[in-house]
Design brief:
alpha/beta, SGNH_hydro_sf, hydrolase activity, SASA, Rossmann fold, Probable carbohydrate esterase At4g34215, Carb_Esterase_6
Length: 263
């Protein structure tokens, strides 16, 4: 192939691959990387009992040699729950949506090769703490770059956050703007302007402004953002965190939403 054609292919590939054409981009191009970010329901609290994970791994969250996880040392390893154990390490972690998402993606035969999950969620964090330049944002960016070292494509950001923004009217009012800016900044800094985002509309919160946050999430006006709704999912003992069953369900819904990007 002539070098001119290669140039054209290279300059087009990011956009094409990150959104539509799955058949152009299979395992030969390396991992399909997914960034997992947000707060506790993304980090995973499913199966926690008196501050400890019960150890139950549902069949939907089983490990596979095709599902890797970037650990806190930025090394790939076979993913097993809890995915965030060394990232959100100040809290007890249990089942989150990540493995159910990945297993569900594999079942869809999308020809996207090996899956690389990059856990970045931290419990109890507000959207303002994820602003560009802050420590959470920097950590996410540096883990995303580390994930790309071995080759691969960042396919999407999976985002589940907002419970901590339901406490004040001010935060609730600003949520939509802050969220849109966060997604836009990440896309810009990763140089993936059309990077798909799959986010979750809240099922629970820490304060009275749950509906305002949900409205912001469901109404976000950016291309390539899909929102799955956690309303009605099974919440665990504390009224805030999804149960294992709820997390599995959300992970599968996120996989269905992601599949629409490459259908
Ligand atoms: C994807 O790429 C293949 C090969 O280049 C092409 O034949 C096919 O039409 C493309 N599909 C879409 C949906 O763009
Ligand atoms: C995936 O890549 C391999 C080469 O590594 C190629 O033989 C195969 O046809 C590709 N599959 C699809 C669906 O593009
Ligand atoms: C995926 O491929 C497997 C094995 O070829 C097949 O059994 C399964 O039905 C396929 N699933 C879908 C959703 O196409």
């Amino acid at each position: 192939m002539s070098s001119l054609i290669w140039l054209v292919l290279l300059s087009c590939s990011t956009l094409v691959i990150s959104t539509k054409n799955a058949s152009d981009s299979n395992a030969s191009q390396g991992k399909s990387i997914f960034i997992l970010a947000g707060q506790s329901n993304m980090a995973g609290r499913g199966g926690l009992k008196s501050g400890m994970w019960d150890g139950y791994v549902p069949p939907e969250c089983e490990s596979s040699p095709k599902i890797l996880r970037l650990n806190a040392d930025n090394k790939w390893e076979e993913a097993r729950p809890p995915l965030h154990r060394d990232i959100d390490y100040l809290k007890a972690c249990g089942i989150g949506p990540g493995l159910a998402f990945a297993n569900s993606i594999l079942k869809k035969n999308l020809s996207i090769g090996e899956i690389g999950l990059v856990p970045c969620a931290i419990g109890g964090t507000q959207i303002s703490e994820w602003r560009r330049g802050g420590p959470l944002y920097k950590q996410l960016m540096s883990r995303a770059r580390a994930a790309l070292q071995g080759g691969g494509i960042i396919r999407a950001i999976l985002w589940y956050q907002g419970e901590s923004d339901t406490r004040s009217e001010e935060d609730a009012k600003l949520y939509k703007t802050r969220l849109a800016k966060f997604f836009t900044d990440i896309r810009f800094d990763l140089k993936l302007p059309e990077l798909p985002v799959v986010q979750v509309a809240l099922a629970s919160g820490e304060g009275p402004y749950i509906d305002d946050i949900r409205k912001a999430q469901l109404g976000i006006d950016l291309p390539n953002v899909k929102c799955v709704d956690a309303k009605g999912m099974k919440i665990g003992y504390d009224g805030l965190h999804l149960s294992t069953e709820g997390e599995v369900h959300i992970g599968q819904m996120m996989a269905d939403a992601f599949a629409q990007f490459i259908a």
